[in-house]
Every structure is written in structure tokens, then in C-alpha cells.
Specification:
By secondary structure, this protein is an alpha/beta fold. Helices cover 24% and strands 17% of the residues. The strands form 4 sheets. Strands 3-4-9 form a 3-stranded parallel sheet, with helices on both faces. A two-stranded antiparallel ribbon has the order 1-2.
Length: 165
């Protein structure tokens, strides 16, 4: 979600990432496959930074709410109050009016003016970026490799075929 200026796709992406494997399928001449087939079965992290706003603020916030994995990077910008339409002015300019905001299931306003805080704060200092390094990504890979080592995820093996009598 780094450098994400917003949009309207976080719901669709999060819906995909939340899919759970609930069964397996097998085929005589192919590898076993999970159901649903589009479910991801692995550990996840979300990278975020201060250049993300609007839907780029929402995504990591709800990634955390869904308990998909840790957030790594810097606090997001914190601008999620949305506008609709542009009201034209006589001089050719226009006015917009705040119209949409988000609140939690606990009836508290969220994200606006605060952003989404990371679980693990890592700054991508310009000097390091200019050297071709990406400390946030490196930390994300480190966290994932440790999770894979500590909590390996394996799909279940195919059961023995039934005996025909």
C-alpha cells in the first residue's frame, strides 16, 4: 500500500485476501488443489508509508482488523474524508464539500487526521533508497521468512483411496 493515493479497490483486494481454504480437490492426472482456488494460503504482511492516503489509509487499517498480518513501514497520511462532485464557481474555480467519513464498529471515528500506525516501524531513508535499498521491504521479507520457519503452512495430503468391494 505504499505510495497509494487512493481509489476504491481496497474492499475487493481485502475480500480476496480473506478467503479461507475450506476443502481440497483432487484429479487423477493433476496436482491436488485448494477450494476455493483463488484463496491464498500463506503468511502476509502489509507495507505502508506516509505517502498513502484515502483508500491507501483504509487498506492497511482493515488488513489489521481482519488479522491478516503485521503492518510494516511508516504511519499513513490520515486523509480519508471523501468528497463528491465539484460545485462550479463564477470565476471558473470550484468548491468541494467533505461528505464521507469512516468509523469503527465501536462507534469511534477512525484514521482521519491520524493515519494507520504500523506494527513495526521502519523508515525508508532517502540515502538508503538512493543506494537501491528498501528497508521496509527487507523487513517484510525478514518477518515472513521467520513466520514460515516458525509456523509453516501445509495443505493436507490426499487421503487413501477408498477400497472397492
Amino acid at each position: 500500500m505504499r505510495y497509494n493515493g487512493g481509489g476504491f479497490v481496497s474492499e475487493m483486494i481485502l475480500e480476496r485476501l480473506r478467503r479461507l481454504i475450506v476443502g481440497m480437490g483432487s484429479s487423477r492426472n493433476a496436482q491436488d488443489y485448494p477450494y476455493p482456488g483463488a484463496a491464498f494460503y500463506g503468511h502476509m504482511v502489509c507495507l505502508l508509508n506516509e505517502y498513502s492516503a484515502s483508500d491507501g489509509d483504509y487498506f492497511p487499517y482493515f488488513f489489521r482488523e481482519y488479522k491478516l498480518g503485521p503492518l510494516i513501514g511508516k504511519r499513513t497520511w490520515g486523509g480519508v474524508v471523501g468528497i463528491r462532485g465539484f460545485r462550479p464557481l463564477i470565476d471558473g474555480g470550484y468548491v468541494t464539500v467533505p461528505e464521507f467519513a469512516a468509523f469503527s464498529l465501536e462507534s469511534k471515528w477512525i484514521i482521519e487526521n491520524r493515519g494507520t500506525e504500523p506494527d513495526i516501524e521502519v523508515d525508508n531513508l532517502p540515502k538508503l533508497v538512493m543506494q537501491g535499498k528498501d528497508p521496509q521491504l527487507e523487513k517484510g521479507v525478514e518477518v515472513l521468512l521467520q513466520k514460515i520457519k516458525d509456523e509453516p503452512k501445509k495443505l493436507p495430503p490426499r487421503p487413501p483411496y477408498p477400497e472397492k468391494r
